[in-house]
Amino acid sequence: IVWLDLRVSDLERAQEFYHRLLGWTYETFEDVAVTIHDGDETLGMMSEVTASRPAAETGAVVYLEVRDMTAALQVATSMGATVEIGPETDEPSGAVYADILDPYGLRIGLVQENPSPSADGEPV
Question: Against a cut of 0.90, is the pTM above it?
């Protein structure tokens, strides 16, 4: 797991909840989001649902690292997943990410941090 994206209906209340529960601290990112920190480590982002992100999409998205985004998406879609977002390149990090819905409707994020193709026989 390389990133956690929490999509909430009330950003202020959610920040308080996770701060009191886990001690997380935050840094404002744009108007409707904060980055989540646990000590010196950045865990992910918490964002508030808006008109462009309906309440039906609240929840958590876990981002998993893959070695080869193209191969990972080919495997996922061949097994019944659908690509919802991406693949897109994050600036300035250069990481490539995509959101998929697995065959059971669960949203999962994929991240390729260092774009380079996987070798034959290795997991994607």
Answer: no
